[in-house]
Structure formats: structure tokens, C-alpha cells
């Protein structure tokens, strides 16, 4: 794309992008607008042939892209970010329709894309040199080849960009498979890329789970980066193992927030609520379990309830609403199951209604469950929706053990006036990212990944680039 020229993307027609060209399909499906329950535009379902063609195109494009100087690759990534920014309003509109998230939060996600690309453009691929009398040993890093990115529906743009930027910067080619629930922004993102990058460098194929499995099994794909549920992540790893693919898995979480007794209750309680209900609770690192010191439990819970009652839920353009609907019917039914279970068990609903009212869209009022037992479903499992349990604690050792008593380990929070004490607690929590005096706010400047069954490996930060590289050690002996 020449400088100053604005691309002309049609935001109502959608294609897979294979070898730099738009590709339709005999088979189509439609996303659902979760605000209205109505169908959106036709989306082509990629065939096995489409995927094989995309892999072949990526394999063909790889040597030249690998050998393109990193400064040139950065320049093209920068141009891509600029071209994207010229369409930020259209991408925001599209994201509102496919995800249902309020416009201001959709705009924040869209604005995060150039930020992620810009951060990666500030990095260099590391080189290490070791010398002694006999030899010099160079540790360098080379790209893997063809990478596959299987992306989720909760942040379809930012989480796609978070895989695309490091892959392309390090000299890989990448094929993106968006979630069938939110295919539109990713398809348009890759279409825009055809104006900047050589054919085959960045492609997108939309389809169902079978297509994702085919990507994992394909012998010419060197790596899969997957963000999604732990159950699906295990399947991705199993399929990828057949060809010993590299995998980065960012999976589900069951994040604990520990509230120490010295907090400013009025200030902190609304923040903790935001951590639980941001994006309608559809965040892998949302706060999922809240542990409040017994001396402030009643007061803190009451402040959480007070704030929760002010939270507006509605359509993307309803003005000052904080939350939209749950993104898809499958997830809506799953979240409703937590309501039904909590009601059947007789748990106390501190805020929200025990019954989810029927509506055209997948709307759920944010809900707090007051002190359910440790073995309850709402404590043990990740709802991925706007429902959260609170429990009191008295003994610090015991509550740290309770927080760590899960097979998840993605994120966690500690809140306390004494920052040093809170930080000591944070260091004992078994999670990849722990936040002190903030709800979970991952940043591309820091590595992001999980402990235990919340994932393998990590992306972003200074070392995240290495997830897209093979170490290449050259031993040079002196004659």
C-alpha cells in the first residue's frame, strides 16, 4: 500500500485469506450478534484443501521472509499498524457486533492492537556470545517456519495480534484460525495485511474444531499457539505431539484475590468487582474467587454489592454501560448452570438474581455468591461469566493454601495497604501473573503464561519472542 493511501475494505463481505488472495467457500456459517440473538454476515468455512493451500503458501513464502532483514520486517509491521489505525472505527463497530462488548471497551481493544505491534517492534532478537582460548560460541535464534494461531472469542483482535506480531517479527509465517463465534474482525485484519505483506506471510482460515485439529496435525506446521480452555488445550497438545510441534498454550484460570485487613474498603471493593466482572467475566485472568479478611468481610462485601448494583448491563451503544452480554449461547447456557447449581444448593446470593431472565440477547446481571463451601462448583470451576464467590479468611497461611488449592495457575491478586507485606503474599501464589493492588491487567511488556494446567510456555515481554524461535548454537573453534 503506497504512503497516504487509505485502503478500501468492505466491512460487510468476509473471506478467508490464502496466498494473499480472498477465498470464498461453498459452505458458509454466520456468527450471532449476542446483543440481539440475530445472525450476522456469511463467513466462508475453510475446507481441508484451503488449509493445505495456506500451509503450502506459507512454506513457499517462508525462506524469503526469514531472510528479510529484521528492520524491514519491523517497517512492514509498522505500516500494518498504521493501516489498521485508519480503520479503527470500522473495526470497533465490527467488534461490537460480533462480541457484544460496550463500545468504549471495544475501542480499547482496537486501540491495543497498534500498541502490541509497537511493543514488539521495539524488541531485538537476542544473541549471546561466549569466548575462551579454544573457541567462540554464538547462541542465536532462528524462526521456526510456519506457525498456526488458534484464537479465542473473548478478545478476538488483541489476542490475534499478540500472536501475529512476535511471529512475523522473528521471521515466521503465520496462519490464524479465529473462533467461529467471532470470525469477523480476524478475517478483516488478515485481509488488510494483504496490502502490506508478501503473499503467504499472514493468512487466515476460518472454520470449526476439525479445522483446528487439522492445523495441529499438519506435518508442515512447526508451532501452534493456542488460547482457550484447558480441555481444548490438552487436545491441541495431543494432536501437536504427533509431529513434535512446538506449542504455546494459554489456558483457563481460576484466579484468587486475597484482600488483606488493612485495605481502604470503599476504594478497593469496586476495583475488585471490576476484576471479577470486566468483559462480563469472560477473561481468562478475571478474578474468579475472592477471599476477604473476616474483620472486614461484611463491610467489604456490602461495598461490593453497592457497586455491583450500579453496574449497567446492555447494548454496546447504551452509553455508560460497563457490561455487555455473554458472547455466545453455549457459554450463556454454561454460566446459567452455575446459577442453577448455586440456587439448588441454597447458597446466598448477595447481589444479582438466582434466576437468569430470558431476553433476546445473552444478558446476565452480575452476581455475587456469599460464602459458598470450598467444594462448591462455583469455587472449584471457572464460570467464565459474571458470577463470582466470596469467602472470609482469618489465617494467612490457610488462605494462601486455599488460593493455591486448584489445578489452575494463570493469575492472582493481593490487595493491601502494606505493599511489602502484600508483595510477600503475592510471591507465594502459584500463578503466572500476580497483581498487587490492581485487578488483573496483563500488558504486552511482560511475559504472559500460566502455571499448572493454565498453560505451557508464554508470550509477550522481552523473552516472548523466543516462543517463535529455535535456539541455534554455533561453536567456532580457533584454528
UniProtKB/TrEMBL annotation:
<keyword id="KW-0560">Oxidoreductase</keyword>
<dbReference type="InterPro" id="IPR029510">
    <property type="entry name" value="Ald_DH_CS_GLU"/>
</dbReference>
<feature type="active site">
    <location>
        <position position="250"/>
    </location>
</feature>
<dbReference type="Pfam" id="PF00171">
    <property type="entry name" value="Aldedh"/>
</dbReference>
<feature type="domain" description="Aldehyde dehydrogenase">
    <location>
        <begin position="27"/>
        <end position="472"/>
    </location>
</feature>
<comment type="similarity">
    <text>Belongs to the aldehyde dehydrogenase family.</text>
</comment>
<dbReference type="InterPro" id="IPR044086">
    <property type="entry name" value="LUC3-like"/>
</dbReference>
<dbReference type="InterPro" id="IPR016161">
    <property type="entry name" value="Ald_DH/histidinol_DH"/>
</dbReference>
<dbReference type="InterPro" id="IPR015590">
    <property type="entry name" value="Aldehyde_DH_dom"/>
</dbReference>
<dbReference type="InterPro" id="IPR016160">
    <property type="entry name" value="Ald_DH_CS_CYS"/>
</dbReference>
<dbReference type="InterPro" id="IPR016163">
    <property type="entry name" value="Ald_DH_C"/>
</dbReference>
<dbReference type="InterPro" id="IPR016162">
    <property type="entry name" value="Ald_DH_N"/>
</dbReference>
<protein>
    <recommendedName>
        <fullName>aldehyde dehydrogenase (NAD(+))</fullName>
        <ecNumber>1.2.1.3</ecNumber>
    </recommendedName>
</protein>
<dbReference type="GO" id="GO:0004029">
    <property type="term" value="F:aldehyde dehydrogenase (NAD+) activity"/>
</dbReference>
Amino acid at each position: 500500500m503506497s504512503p497516504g493511501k487509505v485502503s478500501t475494505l468492505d466491512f460487510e463481505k468476509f473471506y478467508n485469506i490464502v496466498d494473499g488472495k480472498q477465498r470464498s467457500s461453498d459452505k458458509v456459517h454466520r456468527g450471532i450478534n449476542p446483543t440481539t440473538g440475530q445472525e450476522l454476515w456469511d463467513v466462508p468455512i475453510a475446507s481441508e484443501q484451503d488449509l493445505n493451500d495456506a500451509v503450502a503458501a506459507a512454506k513457499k513464502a517462508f525462506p524469503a521472509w526469514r531472510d528479510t532483514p529484521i528492520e524491514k520486517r519491523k517497517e512492514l509491521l509498522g505500516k500494518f499498524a498504521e493501516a489498521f489505525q485508519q480503520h479503527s472505527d470500522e473495526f470497533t463497530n465490527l467488534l461490537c457486533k460480533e462480541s457484544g462488548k460496550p463500545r468504549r471497551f471495544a475501542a480499547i481493544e482496537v486501540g491495543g492492537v497498534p500498541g502490541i505491534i509497537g511493543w514488539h517492534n521495539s524488541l531485538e532478537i537476542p544473541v549471546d556470545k561466549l569466548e575462551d582460548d579454544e573457541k567462540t560460541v554464538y547462541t542465536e535464534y532462528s524462526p521456526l517456519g510456519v506457525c498456526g494461531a488458534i484464537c479465542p472469542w473473548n478478545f478476538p483482535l488483541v489476542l490475534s495480534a499478540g500472536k501475529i506480531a512476535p511471529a512475523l517479527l522473528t521471521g515466521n509465517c503465520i496462519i490464524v484460525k479465529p473462533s467461529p463465534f467471532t470470525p469477523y474482525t480476524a478475517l478483516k485484519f488478515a485481509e488488510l495485511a494483504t496490502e502490506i505483506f508478501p503473499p503467504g506471510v499472514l493468512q487466515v482460515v476460518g472454520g470449526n474444531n476439525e479445522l483446528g485439529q487439522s492445523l495441529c496435525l499438519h506435518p508442515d506446521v512447526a508451532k501452534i499457539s493456542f488460547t482457550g480452555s484447558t480441555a481444548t488445550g490438552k487436545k491441541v497438545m495431543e494432536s501437536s505431539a504427533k509431529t513434535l510441534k512446538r506449542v504455546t498454550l494459554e489456558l483457563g484460570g481460576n484466579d484468587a484475590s486475597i484482600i488483606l485487613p488493612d485495605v481502604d474498603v470503599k476504594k478497593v471493593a469496586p476495583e475488585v468487582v471490576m476484576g471479577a466482572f470486566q468483559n462480563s467475566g469472560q477473561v481468562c485472568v478475571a478474578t474468579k474467587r475472592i477471599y476477604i479478611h473476616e474483620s472486614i468481610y461484611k463491610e467489604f462485601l456490602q461495598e461490593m454489592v453497592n457497586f455491583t448494583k450500579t453496574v449497567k448491563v446492555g447494548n454496546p451503544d447504551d452509553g455508560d454501560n460497563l457490561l455487555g452480554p455473554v458472547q455466545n449461547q453455549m457459554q450463556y447456557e454454561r454460566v446459567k448452570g452455575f446459577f442453577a447449581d448455586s440456587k439448588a444448593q441454597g447458597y446466598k446470593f448477595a447481589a444479582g438474581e438466582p434466576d437468569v431472565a430470558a431476553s433476546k440477547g445473552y444478558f446476565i446481571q452480575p452476581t455475587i455468591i456469599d460464602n459458598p463451601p470450598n467444594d462448591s462448583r462455583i469455587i472449584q470451576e471457572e464460570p467464565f461469566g459474571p458470577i463470582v464467590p466470596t469467602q472470609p479468611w482469618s489465617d494467612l497461611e490457610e488462605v494462601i493454601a486455599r488460593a493455591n488449592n486448584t489445578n489452575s495457575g494463570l493469575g492472582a491478586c493481593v490487595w493491601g495497604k502494606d505493599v511489602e507485606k502484600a508483595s510477600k503474599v503475592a510471591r507465594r501464589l502459584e500463578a503466572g501473573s500476580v497483581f498487587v493492588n490492581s485487578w488483573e491487567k496483563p500488558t504486552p511488556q511482560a511475559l504472559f503464561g500460566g502455571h499448572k494446567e493454565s498453560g505451557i510456555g508464554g508470550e509477550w515481554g522481552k523473552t516472548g519472542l523466543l516462543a517463535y524461535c529455535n535456539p541455534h548454537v554455533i561453536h567456532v573453534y580457533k584454528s
